[in-house]
Amino acid sequence: MARLSIPLMDGKVMVYEGEPDELVKIGEQILARSATQTARPTDVAELQPSTGSPMSAGRQKPAQTTTDWQQFSPDAPPDLRHTRVLTALFDSRAASGWNKLVHEAHVDTFRRLRSLGHPPLEALRTVTNSNIIKGRPTSEEAKKGYHYIPEIDVSIQNVDAAHAWSNTLRLAKHLRVEVIVDFEWMEKSEATYPGKKGRLWWKPA
Asked: What is the extent of the structural domain holding 86?
């Protein structure tokens, strides 16, 4: 695991953790965006530091719609096929993709359950909708999409974007932590809104 720190204009720092090649891609995306765009209110929300909630700066609620950006209900998301994650946070854990978000949510949940004195794997099975197995996947399990998470010695089966969001949202509600994903549809005719950006955001009341 490696760490990427991005300094923000307000003096705070956004911290990403992940594999080195993934962090390189994240850094390139952020540099490209800063070079070609003037910051919008939604840009600020995308790059909040991991030391607090993703909307901590002024606690401003993002606009429901802009020219090419729309916030959707977390409980009734649009068709997420042909989308890619721009930025995502589960509580303070950053992720660079839909299944990466699921992985981060499970790591956070596992550790919290363990800190409460619960047998973490057994307790995790009771609260997650994801398919999980202890340890590394066999070759056959790997073919079925199971991905090993060394931090918790658990393998999680990768899923499509819609299931990734619903599985993550379930854990966020169980822990009562904030989760936010900024994403965009690819420029494909099969996409619901080709080229448009969206946000899914849930926080406890």
From this structure: 2-202
What the block records as the tokens of 94 is 């950053």
If you write DSSP's letter for every residue of 72-103 in order, what string do you get? E-TTS----TTEEEEEEEETTEEESSHHHHHH
The count of other CB atoms within 10 Å of the CB of residue 80 is: 22
Beta strands 83-90 and 93-95 are: antiparallel
- Predicted TM-score of the model (pTM): 0.69
CB 65 within 8 A of CB 191: no
How far is Cα 134 from Cα 142, in angstroms, rounded to an integer? 13
Q: Which residues pair with 149 in a beta bridge?
A: 154
How many domains are contained in the chain? 1
**pLDDT band at residue 51 using 50, 70 and 90 as cut-offs:** very low
More confidently predicted of 30 and 11: 30
